[in-house]
Design brief:
- The chain has about 130 residues and is α+β, with helices and mostly antiparallel strands.
- Helices cover about 15% and strands about 40% of the residues.
- Strands 1, 2, 3, 4, 5, 6 and 7 form a 7-stranded antiparallel sheet that branches.
- It is globular and about 50 Å long.
- This is CYTH domain-containing protein.
- InterPro entries: CYTH-like_dom_sf, CYTH_domain, YgiF.
- One of its GO terms (molecular function) is inorganic triphosphate phosphatase activity.
- It holds the Pfam family CYTH.
Length: about 130
């Protein structure tokens, strides 16, 4: 799947104004807006000690929400006018442990040894937030 994300940084109380004023403008111009329920998301981002993901301009995370887990691979993409566009692959997980071998082999750079890299993953940082 390919996605285009438009991200906003707002004051804490801007959510309602955004829904009332900005979303109707998107709809008027036939831009599909996916609405989400409020989610408490816990995210752990991984790389190897050799920084394979960073060097390839890729991102890999495990996200948890209320006991449900998913791992996401975001490939190198492009940014234009504040829009981020790149391929993204999501795989459900039974627990929060990352497993690179669950992705199809064609998503990886040809020279990556996924079995070996899987055991070399190191958590780089965690970020937790509420999505409205």
């Amino acid at each position: 799947m390919s996605e285009i994300e438009l991200k906003f940084v707002t004051q804490h109380d801007a959510h309602q104004a955004f829904k009332e004023r900005v979303l109707p403008l998107f709809e008027r111009h036939h831009v599909k807006v996916l609405s989400h329920e409020e989610l408490r998301l816990e995210n752990d981002y991984y790389d190897t000690e050799q920084q394979h993901f960073q060097q390839a301009k890729m991102g890999f995370r495990v996200r948890g929400n209320n006991g449900t887990y998913e791992q996401t691979l975001k490939t190198n993409g492009k940014v234009s006018g504040g829009l981020h566009q790149r391929a993204e692959y999501n795989i459900p997980l039974a627990n929060p442990s990352p497993d690179l071998t669950l992705f199809e082999s064609d998503v990886w750079p040809n020279d990556w040894q996924i079995q070996s890299m899987n055991s070399q993953l190191v958590k780089q940082f965690s970020t937790h937030f509420t999505r409205h």
